[in-house]
Design goal:
The structure holds 2 protein chains of 2 kinds. By secondary structure, chain A is mainly β. Chain A contains no helices and 11 strands. Chain A has strands at about 5, 10, 20-25, 35-40, 50-55, 60-65, 70-75, 80-85, 95-105, 115, 120-125. In chain A, the strands form 2 sheets. In chain A, strands 2, 4, 5, 6, 9, 10 and 11 form a 7-stranded mixed β-sheet that branches. The chains are: A mainly beta, B mainly beta. The interface between A and B is medium-sized, with 28 and 26 residues.
């Protein structure tokens, strides 16, 4: 059974960087793209979901949402089936729950996402 | 740029009733690349529908998706207690990539 295990919560200062990991198990790592989606804390009906970017293990490449380009870096270690997301120049607006999510398809980093991690809370505060 | 607008914001219904949720795009979505997710409180989203009308693995048949172009609908034929949650649509074929709607909350009347 496919599982995505994410690293623990982080508290960071504005201007610093954070690196979150997502270890995949229960499937063939090369068969599916893995992306990062974040969700700001907030109230119902829904605090928006926002796609940051993703990694295609089959190709060894990453794609990013344009507005995060230059601030986000997504890498992977095939030997451990782990994908990493590093976000730099953190600001308070980056406080959110960061999910890794597996695409249904090998090279479609934008989804649809059939498996999700439990989320990693990143808090940016001085 | 494709923007997805979901309506209504909140839908108040009773168990057993039918729920109809709408997702409207500002531009036509390529190849019906539209998905629906359910998010229960404190949980990650769960894929329900992809390709506008294909149920994901393990999803009960009371969930169905329809639509094409710019107008899409998620229907829950008879609400079960576990269906009260927030529902998001997502387009994964256009620009900007991977955008989600703002969500519709289905709560108990």
């Amino acid at each position: 059974q496919v599982q995505l295990e994410q690293s623990g919560a982080e508290v960071k200062k504005p201007g610093s960087s954070v690196k979150v990991s997502c270890k995949a198990s229960g499937g063939n790592f090369n068969n599916n793209a893995i992306s990062w989606v974040r969700q700001a804390p907030g109230q119902a009906p829904g605090q928006g979901l926002e796609w940051l970017g993703g990694f295609i293990p089959l190709l060894g490449t990453a794609n990013y949402e344009q507005r995060f380009q230059g601030r986000v870096s997504i890498t992977a270690d095939e030997s451990t089936s782990t994908v990493y997301m590093e976000l730099s120049s953190l600001r308070s607006e980056d406080t959110a729950l960061y999910y890794c999510a597996r695409s249904l398809y090998r090279v479609a980093v934008t989804g649809p996402f059939d498996h999700w991690g439990r989320g990693t809370l990143v808090t940016v505060s001085s | 740029e494709i923007v997805l607008t979901q309506s209504p914001g909140t839908l108040s219904l009773s168990p057993g009733e039918r729920a109809t949720l709408s997702c409207r795009a500002t531009q036509s979505i390529t190849a019906n690349s539209l998905a629906w997710y359910q998010q229960r409180a404190g949980q990650a989203p769960r894929l329900l529908i992809y390709g506008a009308s294909n149920r994901a693995t393990g999803i009960p048949d009371r969930f169905s998706g329809s639509g094409s172009g710019t107008d899409f609908t998620l229907t829950i034929s008879r609400l079960e207690p576990e269906d009260f949650a927030v529902y998001y649509c997502q387009q994964y074929g256009g620009s900007p990539p991977g955008t989600f709607g703002q969500g519709t909350k289905v709560d108990i009347k």
